[in-house]
Structures are given as C-alpha cells and as structure tokens.
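Dig into my protein:

:::
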Amino acid sequence: VQLVESGGGSVQAGGSLRLSCDASRYTFSAYCMGWSRQAPGKEHEGVAAIDSDGHIHYTDSVKGRFTISRDNAKNTLYLQMNSLKPEDTAMYYCAADSRGWFLTLRPDDFGYWGQGTQVTVS
C-alpha cells in the first residue's frame, strides 16, 4: 500500500484547499479511506472517513466545511476544505484500512499512512 498526499499549502482564514491522496499497490475501492491531522502539541485527530460503500463520517469541527470523496477509477481520495480556520492548521495525513466496511475516524484503526501534507491557515 502506497499513499501520497498533495494539495497542502498556506491560505488565509476563510479560504479553501483541496487535498488529494494518490493510492497504489492495493485494491483501493475495497478499502476504508480517511483523513486525519495533527498539529504540534495536539492529539492526532481523525477528520473524515469514507468506507468502500461510500458511507461518510466527519468529526464535528469540520462538518459543513470539509467534504471527503473518492474516485475509485483514479485510485484517489480527496478532501475539499472550505471556510478554513486557523485552528485547521496541521499536518494532514491520508490513511487506508483493508476493512473496507469499517467506517471509523480513529487513527489507530487505520493500517496504512501517507507522509502528510502541511496545511497552514492564518
């Protein structure tokens, strides 16, 4: 399993970013996929997840602002982030788990991780 994130950057509060995660070396469509984030000195937090059937779960702080989606034909996971706030500043990670039916936000439930992409909101 290989996961490569992109799309991070620096934006002003209220702005938008779209993160992408290119997946390879496994059956992407069968896996549960998620995004998590970690800011310095803070806990690693699950942000959004989508299972193999397309069911979605968000952490409360991003509901209505972030949208997770997947394109199984392109083996790509996305996170559209709108109305960004300074508290969204963190390293964002893409994650995958072979239990495609297991919709979870807990980082510990995911078996595979990307290297992360930094999001900074000022």
Residues 11 and 56 are 26 Å apart (CA to CA).
